[in-house]
Design a protein that fits this description.
Length: about 270
């Protein structure tokens, strides 16, 4: 456990929250995580093939959201899979969502360790105004990859290089050889998604938060949580990062009973 999270959990109320039982996942929950983004991806490609671009964009947004949910759980070894299975998920998602998910994992785990400090490459964008976080989107994606490549060990650097080479190959094939319009659409949609990540995945859940008690925001609207697949239950995740996303709803109820003031910082 990082020092920042340890400081937060010095609150005796939070130390009494039961969470270890929420780490376990059932076989159906293990299967659900990769199937969920796969369904949205197939639906978006079908819509794009039919020329329904607006519909396809909405479906691609849901794919990106649920893809991040899958990747995020993989970052914290919370998928219920073996180490090899988790690595396979990160490689497949690096190809499908584009980018190096191992690079993103490096900066994300540092985000948990450094928690909104100046050294926190991921979290520093939460200190910006919302419009600046939007404008910094393309830079944010590049910065995460450069940071991981610069500070990671040689095996991580080799993995990042391999995944980016895989991305480049797939993009060239999509636009120069296969020329399948839905695939070209998907590549462009993923580029847009990455440009919006700094705002939706960082700023929305961390703006106007601190490094001590209110370390992240949360969401208590059941409908919005259902639509966003619990991805905005973020203070719950920071307090207990080993709990998979599928159990964050129950974790939020337990935290509310122990420290009800933490739900006062709402995402939207």
């Amino acid at each position: 456990m990082t020092r920042e999270l340890h400081d937060t959990l010095r609150d005796p109320r939070l130390r009494q929250v039961q969470w270890l039982d929420l780490v376990r996942v059932t076989p159906m929950q293990v299967l659900f995580e990769p199937v969920l983004p796969a369904l949205w991806l197939v639906a978006s490609l079908i819509a794009a093939a039919d020329g329904q671009v607006i519909v396809a964009l909405g479906l691609s947004f849901m794919f990106f959201l649920t893809g991040l949910r899958l990747i995020h759980n993989a970052f914290h070894a919370a998928l219920g899979l073996s180490h090899l299975g988790t690595e396979l998920v990160l490689w497949v998602m690096s190809a499908v969502i584009l980018g190096s998910m191992h690079a993103v994992r490096f900066t994300h785990l540092n985000h948990h360790r450094l928690n909104l400090s100046q050294e926190d490459v991921e979290g520093r964008h939460a200190q910006m105004a919302g419009w600046r976080a939007l404008l910094h989107g393309p830079y944010f994606t590049v910065l995460m990859h450069v940071t991981a490549f610069r500070h990671g060990h040689w095996r991580l650097r080799a993995t990042i290089a391999g995944q980016l080479l895989m991305n480049a190959t797939l993009i060239v094939l999509a636009f120069r050889h296969w020329t399948w319009a839905p695939l070209q659409y998907h590549v462009c949609a993923m580029g847009v998604g990455h440009c919006l990540t700094a705002f939706f995945a960082v700023w929305t859940v961390h703006h106007h938060c601190d490094r001590t008690h209110y370390i992240a925001r949360t969401l208590r609207n059941r409908i919005l949580n259902a639509v966003t697949f619990n991805m905005f239950l973020h203070i719950e995740h920071h307090l207990f990062p080993l709990v998979p996303t599928c159990h964050l709803g129950e974790l939020s109820r337990r935290i509310d009973r122990a420290a009800p003031e933490l739900k006062s910082k709402i995402v939207f």
